[in-house]
């Protein structure tokens, strides 16, 4: 079965994360981009890098996308997370501006 179609900025972000490419991951965000990890918000490049080093790319998180849906101005990606941190299904809601991600919100 083919992988669900992702908007290009989200695809770049997930591909970079899955490849362990911190720079590519960070470059996928707008300058004022943020990660909201279950209510903990990390805004800006340095804050996102610190979060990722400890909880995402730094623990070899990998996302296997299982579904993609539009929900208003968000794209919600359901993925199975693997790696040396959290493992299991999770939803990632993205807000995109132009060709970059403004927000990645992780939840259920």
Structure, described:
It is a single chain. The chain is α+β, with helices and mostly antiparallel strands and 108 residues long. It has 3 helices and 6 strands. A 6-stranded mixed sheet has the order 2-1-6-5-4-3. The longest helix has 11 residues, at 8-18. The two termini are 24 Å apart. It has one domain (8-107): Nuclear Transport Factor 2, Chain: A, CATH 3.10.450.
In short:
Helices cover 26% and strands 46% of the residues. It has 108 residues and is α+β, with helices and mostly antiparallel strands. The two termini are 24 Å apart.
Biggest sheet: strand arrangement: 2-1-6-5-4-3
The percentage helix is: 25-40%
Number of strands: 6
CATH class: Alpha Beta
Q: Give the overall average pLDDT.
A: 94
CATH topology, by name, is: Nuclear Transport Factor 2, Chain: A
Major sheet: 6 strands, mixed
CATH architecture: Roll
Percent range for β-strand residues:
over 45%
| Unreliable sequence segments | none
The outline comes out as globular
Number of H- or I-type helical stretches: 3
State the secondary-structure class: alpha+beta
Count of domains: 1
- The ordered string of helix (H) and strand (E) elements is HHEEHEEEE
Rg calc? 12 Å
Termini distance? 24 Å
